[in-house]
Write a structure and sequence with these properties.
single chain, about 45 residues, mainly alpha
Length: about 45
Amino acid sequence: MSEKSKINRAKREAEQEKKAKRVINWIIGGLLVAAIGLIIYASL
């Protein structure tokens, strides 16, 4: 494998990892908002 393709593969993997972390953070944030909403609704 040429050096250029190794570099491109490493860049692509790093980008995928950043995107995955962003998605996980959005999911956790959404769950927290839903949990807070449920607590407020349950306390009414």
